Amino acid sequence: MKHWMKSTLLCMALASLAPSVMAQQQKETFDIGDKTFVLNGKPMVIKAAEIHYTRIPAEYWEHRIQMCKALGMNTICIYAFWNIHEQEPGKFDFKGQNDIAQFCKLAQKHGMYIMLRPGPYVCSEWEMGGLPWWLLKKKDIEVRTNDPYFVERTRLFMNEIGKELAPLQITKGGNIIMVQVENEYGAYATDKEYIANIRDIVRNAGFNDVPLFQCDWSSTFQRNGLDDLLWTINFGTGANIEQQFKSLQEARPNTPLMCSEFWSGWFDHWGRKHETRDAGVMVSGLKDMLDRNISFSLYMTHGGTTFGHWGGANSPRYSAMCSSYDYDAPINEAGQTTPKYFKVRELLGGYLDEGQQLADIPAQIPVITIPTFEVTEIAPLFENLPKAHQSETIKPMEDFNQGWGSILYSTTLPNVQEGTTLIINEVHDWAQVFVNGKLLGRLDRRREENTVKLPALPQGAKLDILVEAMGRVNFDRAIHDRKGITESVKLASETTTTDLKNWQVYSFPVNYEFVKDKKFRKGKKIDGPAYYKTTFNVDKPGYVFLDMESWGKGMVWVNGKSIGRFWEIGPQQTLFMPGCWLKKGKNEIIVLDLKGPEQATIAGLDQPILDQLRQEAPLTNRKDGETLQLSGEQPVYTGSFAAGNGWQEVRFDQPIPARYFCLEALNAQDGKDRAAMAELYLLDEQGKPLSRQNWKISYANSEETYGGNFTADKVFDLQESTYWQTGGKEKYPHQIVVDTNADTKISGFRYLPRAEAGAPGMIKDFRIFVKSAPFQY
Ligand code: GLA
Ligand code: CA
Questions:
Q1: How does pLDDT run across 45-60, given as a tens digit for each residue?
Q2: Ligand in closest contact with the CA of 718
Q3: Percentage of residues in the chain with pLDDT exceeding 90?
Q4: Average pLDDT for residues 496-519, to the nearest whole number?
Q5: HSE-up of residue 269 (Cα within 13 Å, Cβ side)
Q6: Any catalytic annotation for residue 261?
Q7: What is the model's pLDDT at position 9?
Q8: Which listed ligand is nearest to 188 at the C-alpha?
């Protein structure tokens, strides 16, 4: 390159950088001071917007950063997602959509600092909480522990992140001001040695110039808090802020306070009510913090989309996440302003940093519509089988080196007598059972379904079990979530049980290269699994919402990019299609529908449909006609909870043998009709919390599932901000019955009311019943 050309390019590059970047490149300092953060020697309140580079097309990163800036924020908070960067062991990808350093630089261009949260675990409703699936190929792996293999792989990944991002620390002329160690580890385990290991791995990766921090809940931060790390607290809209920081302030009177995740909304699960949080309540929480100089990160400020197969799931009671990660955030899924946005902007406008001006809101990206088109080509899945693996026994997907997608297990049945049941352990996550090509049943892990009744069959019938993997669990121990069929397939008659063997196993991964390569032909839709393909026309690209309402269950690829999953049950019925991935003229779309559509048509809408549950009522925990019978039962304890937030513990006189636990709430602190409960633990003989891994709700007399998502299993979902709440019309008493699935002794319990000050539903008087045998209904 000629010298003059080089310098012109350099001038152009410099001209495009805002003055603040020049300042930042002069190298700045960021420290933890006395009750405050300190930027270049001056007190700083961090006003961070959490957005995820993985959930925004790279083409729009800058737009979204500018949207956050115009909201009045001064920082962007991000996770690094290990499993998107290292999809195969040792093959790292930091290019294009995965160019996390470029994302940070764009933030710097707009004068925004970065809080980096590189995991290794990130939760985030992301497949396996950001951990790569291939870790599960090691049979006995224990992720998020000192398991040597896990620690070693973490170190290798963190070193790569260090190569990308350590040079961008603020002290080196970049904009990274803080780096997080692990993520809410207190909600997972108590193991300071492990956290110390991760801290050292993060430091050794090069992050030794800026403060390192831990984020946890107010109830768990001390479990793993290391002396040399900053501690921050996570909580959501509506939380009692005073209460949330109380124990932190007691433990560390001089620490700067930060809510490292202030939840603006919440995420959606398939088959459950769409979540929203009130804008006014959210803004008043932010104001409360700003008035006390408390730093915050607004999780999410823009949720975006969990494209492709990257959504996670919760468990127990397996429940996969929707593709939309709109989160009811101030910036909606499509990157547009919302009423919440303007409320936050107005607030933050009153709390600007010295010399900061409220930036203009960047131009909104145009929206388009697409007239209904028909999908005309079809490639039935059973006519497009890839090469089979042979396997004597049933094995999960990971054992066939498959990470995501669907997997088909086929075998030949012996002579089957009337009354025989097929038992599949375990279905991860949604299976269809075919005999001689005919669909016999569908099994849904969310409902813990695992049996299909077989008709009488002569020897030699063909059994096909097609299992679709939904997201890997991203929270708690169940993150060791292998896919396909994890244990066994058995035939059970009254007298015998036999293991089925000699399987042909077919993998259907989700990468476009695999998907596009099917034998498509012109044809009508079928009832059964098939790939569909067509092209549609776009005059002028813009973003649009693809309406999948008439389709069953599966995934969509447009111009080679997987834009997400659909499922007729909702609540999400449309898929966000970024305009930057469309082109003028012809665009290709491929749909995998595992069930089959009612109509093979699609339209592009200018509004999303995120709140339409169909086909089934939300899952609740009271069967039709059931009413709990307590008249013959003796309570083992009668008492009253204190008013107010925070954990309360109740101990019985002596441990009592129990499998079933019933709490009957007799009235509320506010004298009204509702009951609510955020979390419940049962205590063993030593007074330690029992594992809740195998818990089920046997019964809840009432659950609010239309006004919001408040089912009874929320009392053991480990999230302190979610809760069981009874419906508006039902009156006290209210009962919840837990089946612990274990025969143990219970010496008491811990109860957490809702986190909001003075919120409805706080229980006052109650009775406790425990039994080894089920209750009567
Ligand atoms: C926790 C996690 C986040 C996310 C939120 C819920 O705070 O740290 O990654 O999962 O819960 O959205
Ligand atoms: Ca909860």
A1: 999 999 999 999 999 9
A2: 2
A3: 87
A4: 97
A5: 21
A6: yes
A7: 38
A8: 1
CA 403, 428, 141, 146 torsion-angle sign: positive
Helix and strand numbers (H, E) in the chain are 12, 41
Measured in degrees and rounded to the nearest 5, phi and psi for residue 312 equal -100, -160
Quick one: which of 286, 330, 263 has its CA closest to 125? 263
685 alpha carbon – ligand 2 mean position (Å) = 24
Give the number of residues written for the chain. Answer: 777
CA distances (Å), 774 to each of 217, 621, 739, in order?
35, 15, 8
Encode burial over 77-87: b for 16+ CB neighbours within 10 A, e otherwise: bbbbbbbbbbb
Provide DSSP, 205-268: TT--SS-EEEEE-TTTHHHH--TTSEEEEEEETTB-HHHHHHHHHHH-TTSPPEEEEEESS---
pLDDT in the model for residue 721: 86
- pLDDT band per the 50, 70, 90 thresholds, residue 270: very high
Ligand 1: residue of 78, 123, 473 to mutate (most ligand atoms within 8 A of CB) is 123
Distance, CA of 504 to CA of 516 (rounded, Å): 23
Q: What is the CA radius of gyration of the chain?
A: 27
- Measured in Å, residue 704 CA sits from the centre of ligand 2 at 14
Q: Can you read off the two tokens belonging to residue 203?
A: 């430091």
Report pLDDT for 708. Answer: 79
Query: Smallest Cα–Cα separation from 274: which of 505, 610, 550, 555?
Result: 610
Interval 85-106: pLDDT, tens: 999 999 999 999 999 999 999 9
The span from the CA of 241 to the CA of 238, in Å, is: 9
Q: Which residue CA neighbors atom 5 of ligand 1 most closely?
A: 124
Indicate if 449 belongs to the active site: no
pLDDT of residue 435: 97
Is residue 17 over pLDDT 70? no
